[in-house]
Amino acid sequence: MGKIFIYMVVGYKKLISPIFPPSCRYYPTCSTYMIDAIRKHGAFLGLIMGLGRIFRCHPFIRGGYDPVPDHFTIFRNKKASERYRRSINLK
Q1: Pairing between strand 26-27 and 64-65?
Q2: H helices of 12-42, where?
Q3: How far apart are CA 8 and CA 15, in angstroms?
Q4: How far is CA 54 from CA 36, 57, 58, 63, in A?
Q5: Where are the beta strands (DSSP E) in the chain?
Q6: Mutual angle of helices 30-41 and 2-11, in 10-degree steps
Q7: DSSP annotation of 1
Q8: Cα–Cα distance between 2 and 39 in angstroms, integer?
């Protein structure tokens, strides 16, 4: 089941995404995040995490670095984001 979701996201990245200008506020992008979440947490939980990330990606959010966490959550990976900001000497 996970492979089907991954193929769907890869199809989106290759066929639909190039039509629109880049607009994801996070790194890695939302589609890459969903693929990583499905691989790391399985089809069901990874899909939920990916959809949560897509709902968080809107013009009123700050964005930034947000990798897939090691545990299941639909919230932002704040610890990884803070470590990244400190590593490049940002507050």
Answers
A1: parallel
A2: 30-41
A3: 10
A4: 14, 5, 8, 12
A5: 26-27, 64-65
A6: 170
A7: -
A8: 7
With H, G, I as helix, E, B as strand and everything else as coil, classify residue 82.
helix
pLDDT at 64: 86
pLDDT of residue 91: 64
Show the tokens assigned to 64: 């930034």
Placement of tokens 């990874």 in the chain: 46
Q: What token pair was written down for 34?
A: 């969903």
Number of C-beta neighbours around residue 45 at 10 A:
15
To 10 degrees, the CA torsion angle through 39, 34, 87, 59? -170
Q: How confident is the model at residue 52 (pLDDT cuts 50, 70, 90)?
A: very high
Cα distance from N-terminal residue to C-terminal residue, the chain: 41
Place of tokens 């990976």: 77
